[in-house]
Design brief:
By secondary structure, this protein is of the alpha+beta class. It has one domain. It contains six helices and six strands, in the order ααβββαβββααα. A hairpin with a 2-residue loop joins strand 5 and strand 6. The protein is globular. The N and C termini lie far apart (32 Å).
C-alpha cells in the first residue's frame, strides 16, 4: 500500500501532497537490507542516523512495479553544516532550502518526517544539520542521482527526533502530531 500512496505523493503538490504525506506516516519500513516503502514524499533515504522513533525511515524510492526490488542506496559521505531554514520547495519531492552562515542558499532532501516539521517550526532559527550524500535511483528522472539528505537537525540542544517523540506523546499519535503542524508547514512553503 505504501508504494501506491508514495506514487501518488510523488506527483501531488500543495494541499493534496500534504494529505498524502500524512497517509504515508502510517507506513512501516523494513530493515535497511530489504526494500521498503517511504514514509514521506520528501526523499529516498537510507537508515536514519538519529535514534529510533515513531517514524518509519524510508530506504529508497519504489521500483516501477511493486513486486520489483527497489534499487540500493549508496551512502557516499556524511557531512555537517549550520544555517537557517528558509522555506520548503515542493515538486516531485519536498526539499528544505537552508541558508548557511555565508548567506548562500542550498536545497536538501529530507530524511524523516520529524525533520520536515522540526524545520518548519524552527524556521529562521540557527540550526546544526547533518546530511548524507547518497547515490539514489530517482524514478522521475529515470536514473541514479547524487542527493544530499538531511538526517539530523538540532536547534540549541533539541534534536528533531527527540522533539518529535515529545510531540507525538503529547498529541497521542503520529497522525495527530502531523495534523497539528499542517498549517506551519504550509506557511513555510517557498513563494512561487
Amino acid at each position: 500500500m505504501c508504494y501506491a500512496v508514495w506514487a501518488m505523493c510523488s506527483r501531488a503538490t500543495g494541499y493534496a501532497g500534504m494529505v498524502l504525506l500524512l497517509a504515508l506516516a502510517a507506513c512501516t519500513a523494513e530493515p535497511p537490507s530489504s526494500p521498503s516503502s517511504p514514509s514521506s514524499p520528501s526523499a529516498p533515504s537510507a537508515p536514519a542516523t538519529e535514534a529510533a522513533s515513531t517514524e518509519s525511515p524510508h530506504e529508497s524510492a519504489p521500483a516501477s512495479d511493486e513486486s520489483e526490488e527497489a534499487p540500493p542506496i549508496h551512502l557516499l559521505a556524511v557531512k555537517h553544516t549550520t544555517g537557517t531554514m528558509v522555506c520548503f520547495e515542493v515538486g516531485d519531492y519536498t526539499h528544505a532550502i537552508i541558508r548557511d552562515e555565508a548567506g548562500e542558499e542550498k536545497s536538501y532532501w529530507l530524511g524523516e518526517i520529524s525533520i520536515l516539521y522540526f524545520l518548519a517550526v524552527h524556521r529562521n532559527q540557527p540550526l546544526d544539520l547533518t546530511y548524507e550524500v547518497r547515490d539514489v535511483f530517482i524514478p522521475e528522472a529515470g536514473e541514479r542521482m547524487e542527493t544530499e539528505t538531511l538526517t539530523v537537525a538540532t536547534a540549541g540542544d533539541v534534536t528533531a527526533n527527540d522533539w518529535w517523540l515529545e510531540v507525538v506523546a503529547a498529541k497521542g499519535s503520529p497522525d495527530a502530531a502531523e495534523a497539528s503542524f499542517e498549517e506551519v508547514f504550509l506557511r513555510a512553503l517557498c513563494e512561487p
